Amino acid sequence: MPMTKQKKAKTQKQQIQELQEAIEHADALAQQKSNFLATISHEIRTPMQTIYGLLELISEEKPNEKIASMVATAQEASSGLLEILDDVLDVAKMDADAMELDPFEVPVRLLVRGMLEALSVKVRGAHVELIDDIEQDVPFVILGDPKRLRQILMNLCGNALKFTHEGSVTVHVTTKVHHIKKPKNGIALRFEIIDTGIGMSKDVCARLFKSFAQADNTTARKYGGTGLGLSIAKKLVELMGGKIGVESTEGEGSVFWFEIPTEEVRTDENTVELPDLEGISVLSVEDHPQGAKEIVNSLRSMGATVESCATYAEGLKLIKQRPFDVAVIDQGLPDGLGLNLIREIIKIRPFTGLVMYTVRDDVGLSHSLHALGAIFLTKPASRAGLGEAVKKSTRQNAGIIDGPTRLLIAEDTQSVRDILKRQLDNLGVEADFAEDGKQALEAYRTGKYGIMFTDLHMPEIDGYEVVKAIRKEEEDTDKHFPLIVLTADIQLAQRDVYMRYGFDECLLKPVSLGQLRGLLMRWRLLEETAENTIEAPPPEPAEKFSNDEKPPAIDKECIVAQLGALDESAIEMMGMFRDMTQPVIEEIKSSLHDGDYTRLTEAGHSLKGGARSACCNVLGDLASKLQNDAAQMENCNALVTEILAEFERVKMEIDNL
C-alpha cells in the first residue's frame, strides 16, 4: 500500500530532526573534547613550570659534569613535553574552529635564517648542514602570520632533521608555484624543505599528514613523536588558503613543500598601524649585522632613538653610562648570555624596560624572563610586534591614568590578598581590597580609584561580569578605566585573549615582584626612586630530592621571587597562610561529607589560589584537580585524603622555617 503524503512528510520531518540532533550531539562532543584537551594542557603546564624552575636552580649551583649533563637532559625532555602540550592545545583550537591568523608583516629572509639558527642547536657535530636558499625575486617583506609561518617551518624542518643523519636540510623559497593560483593583486610563495634523509614510500606519504600518524610502528619507536606536527602544519597552511604536500623516495631523502597566497609589503609602506615610540630611548644588543640593522630601522621608523651594539660587554658599558627607557637584547651574544645581561641591568637600572628578542623558542628561558618582569619575544616579529613589545615595557608610553591613581584589587582569597599587600608595601604603593566582584563594583562606582586588578573566579559577581559591567557603563562616555586581570590561566596572558574580554593587561599568578614592579611602572603608579628599588638576594640552593620523593612542600625560590627574600616577614606571612587555610580545609572535609560538590568546587578554587600564591605548589596542583573533579561530580575521596596529607606537610615545613 503506497505511503500517504502526510506520512511521508512526517517521516522527512523526523529525519531532519534526527539529523539536527545528531549534529548538535557531534558539536557538543567536539566542544567537550576541545575543552578537555585545553584543560589537560593547562594543568600539566603548571607543574612543568615548577620543574623548569628547579632544574634552572640546580644548573646555577654549578654542579659537577655528571649532574650538569643529567640536568641538561631533563631540561631537553621538559622542553619536548611542553612542545607536545602546545601541539595538543593547537589541535583543540582547530577542532573547535577557534584557530585564527594574525596578519602582520613577515620579513621572509629573517624568518628562515632565524629559524635555522634556532634549529642549529639540534645538529649534532658537523654531519648535517642547514642551508637557506631564497631566490632573488622573493620579496623582503610579505603579509602573513609570522608566528604560524614559523611554526610550520619549524615542524617541517624539525621533522627533516629527525630523519637526516648526514648531508643537509635546505629551505628553498621561490615565487614559482605549481598547486595554487597567484592572487589577482598579490603573489604566491612556495617553501620547500629538502633533506637527504631516509626517505619514505608512497604509502607512507599518503597518510603522513593525518593526526597521530607515523611512518610505521618501527619508526615511531625509533624516532618518537606524536605525529601531530605535520597534521597541524597542514591545517595551518589550509587556513592560509594554501596547499601542502611531500615528495619522497626511500633512501633518497624527501621534499616537503607548501604554497601560500600572500602580498608583498614594500618597506616604505605600513599595512598595520604601528605604535608611536616618539621620545623612547632604546638600547639594542644584537650581534647579527642584518638583525641589528632590522631592529634599528624598525624602531626608528616608529619614532624611537636607538643605540646598537653587538656584545655583552658593550651593552653593559652603555647601560652603566646612561639610562635607557628600554633594552632589546638577544640571548646568544658572542661573549655571554642575554639573560645574564638582563640580570645585571636590573641591578644597575632597575626601571629600564626589558625585552628578550631571540630565535630561541625556549619555554624555560621564557619562564625565567617572566619571573624577572621582562618580555620574551621570538624572532622574527613584525615591526608592529617589536614596537608593541618596546611600548609595553617602557614607562614612557605607559597607560596614563586620568583622575585618581589609587589602586583597587578584587580578590576573594585572603592569603593572596596578604601576599599582594606585602608586595605593594615593599614597593611603596597603597591599595584597597575587595573580597568579591560585587564589592569591587561598588568601590569602583565611588570614583576613588584609577585602576583595578581583578581575579576571575569570585563569589557574588565574577571577574568576567565585573569587566563587562564597567565596559558597558563606559559606552556612552569617552572614559576608559584600566582593568588588569589576575589569573593562573596562561591562555589569558595572550594579548588578543585578555583584550577580547575587555582587560588592558594580564598579571599571572603567582605574581613575582618583577612582574608587579613592571606593571606598576607602565601605569605610572611607581616612580623611579632609590627606596623603591628592590634587589633580591641570590636564591637559596635547590633542595635535593630523589625520584621517589615529592618536591618540597614550599618552593623557597618562589617566595624569594615574590617577596624579595625569605626573611622573618616572609615566614610570618607563611604562618598566616597556614592559619587562614585551616578553615578552607575544614570546608573541604565538610563538603565532601555532605556530598555538596558545588561547595567542594568553590573550596578547591579558594585553596588553589591561596596555595599557589604562598608557593605551596604541590598543594596548589592538588587543589586545582579537586576543583575540576568536583565540578564534574567525580569521586574525590582519595584526592581529599591526599590534600589533607599535603597540608600537614606544608604545616610541618612552615614550622621548620
Largest sheet: 5 strands, mixed
The counted number of beta strands is: 19
Q: Low-confidence parts lasting 5 or more residues at pLDDT below 50?
A: 215-224, 529-548
Report, as a whole number of angstroms, the end-to-end distance.
89 Å
Helix content: 40-55%
Q: DSSP helix count?
A: 22
What do you see in this structure?
By secondary structure, the chain is an alpha/beta fold. The protein folds into 5 domains: 15-95, Helix Hairpins; 104-262, Histidine kinase-like ATPase, C-terminal domain (Heat Shock Protein 90, 2-Layer Sandwich); 281-393, Response regulator (Rossmann fold, 3-Layer(aba) Sandwich), CATH 3.40.50; 406-532, Rossmann fold; 556-656, HPT domain (Four Helix Bundle (Hemerythrin (Met), subunit A)), CATH 1.20.120.160. It has 22 helices and 19 strands. The strands form 5 sheets. Strands 2-4-5-7-6 form a 5-stranded mixed sheet, with helices on one face. Strands 9-8-10-13-14 form a 5-stranded parallel sheet, with helices on both faces. The longest helix has 56 residues, at 5-60. It is globular and about 70 Å long. The chain starts with a helix and ends with a helix.
Gist?
With 657 residues, the protein is of the alpha/beta class. It has five domains: 15-95, Helix Hairpins (Orthogonal Bundle), CATH 1.10.287; 104-262, Histidine kinase-like ATPase, C-terminal domain (Heat Shock Protein 90), CATH 3.30.565; 281-393, 3-Layer(aba) Sandwich (Rossmann fold); 406-532, Response regulator (Rossmann fold, 3-Layer(aba) Sandwich), CATH 3.40.50; 556-656, Up-down Bundle (Four Helix Bundle (Hemerythrin (Met), subunit A)).
